[in-house]
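From the shared-data thread, chain only:
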Amino acid sequence: PNACQFLALFFGCFARSAGRKLLAVYVRGLLSDVQRKNVEAMALDQKVAPRTLQRFLESIAWDEQMLRDRCQQLVAAEHDSPDAIGCIDETGTAKSGKHTAGVKRQYNGNRGKVENCVNSVALSYSAPGFSCLLDARLYLPEEWATDAVRRKQHYIPDDVVFRTKPQLALELLDRAQRNGIRVLAWTADELYGRDSAFLDGLDHRREAFVVEIPPDARVW
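Structure, as tokens:
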């Protein structure tokens, strides 16, 4: 399908036509030759008012979970492979302030050091000739999850509770499986390989895996 036909697959995720139109603008901006992909630069490149595209990101209602499900279903239908590998990892983004939801001094794998940042657990898929991000979830540290004042200030939904990164990874994996994603094996680094509950979770789901373990791990 052409770009318009492809984006039409996701129109049901938006309640109003304005959101559907701005989705096309936003995607074209991401795929453009603009070097810095911030909202203002993309909006000007696409000849729309920057405030219009900002509103698309901050206040136009859309069903994020439905869009994510449809993306995964497309991958499962069009890129299924017996040699596909799933990767579980986290990604960090450095932050200078203290007001971004989930921010704290913690290890940032992108920069290889402990610093002020936010972390997300990510699920990706790789098959011969194709790879993509399947899903990602913000890691909310326990001190954030238990702070009622900060939760309210940052509009954190009531159903978002503290989850370890391995627990988040299993939740993302379950969603992907429900949408038809199948892989030959999952891979993850030492953070997940040292978590016996996570490995038991993969076993319980009858998923093959190859994970890194710490050098002092006891095995039998």
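The first helix runs from residue 3 to 8.
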